[in-house]
Specification:
The protein is of the alpha/beta class. It has 8 helices and 10 strands. Strands 2-7-1-8-9-10 form a 6-stranded parallel β-sheet, sandwiched between helices. The protein has a two-stranded parallel ribbon with strand order 3-6. Strands 4-5 form a two-stranded antiparallel ribbon.
Amino acid sequence: MAEPSIATPPPLPVLRGVFFITGTDTEVGKTWVSCRLLERARDAGLSCYGLKPVAAGCEDTGEGLRNDDALQLMAASSVALPYEQVNPVALKAAIAPHIAARREGKRIDLTRLAGYVRGALNSHPADLVLVEGAGGWRVPLNDREMLAGLAVELQLPVIQVVGMKLGCINHALLTAEAIRADGLDYAGTVANCFGDMEVREDNLITLRQHLPGAFTAV
């Protein structure tokens, strides 16, 4: 019997643990994939929630700045947390976080950011917690620190979301190399097949051959 096509993969797994979610770029579907993983865990009867420690591109509301990605994570979670705990650093401009923070007269500090996440983990233990990054792996927080440092500080295994478009193989392999060079466990890859991509099947096969860990496509 022929092996099933990678274009019709098994559904997303039901995960347990705490994971950091990164991507090959911004707008590749990190939040969409995170929500689907949370929903899988929730539907399996597990306690779960997502965190978005840093979010740029927030809207003013009567209750303060709110980010759509963070709100989506909250909607997909089975454990209810206050918004400020899900997204402790909310920035208005939809630009690189360190630039947005500087424009708003704020400074994002890695130690404080790690403290926010640890506080959530300690006060709300759950079967699955997803900590979603912003943009890709090498995103500056300030002049010295990168958002990747949060995953390093917390020693979280990393799941990479690959946006399936031209150039994604290079981006995905370089990101995986950087994650492992930072001493972290590369837990797996979710290839997000949005839009139309020429020879997508061949690209998926190539990614599966060269990336470590579990691999699925959605």
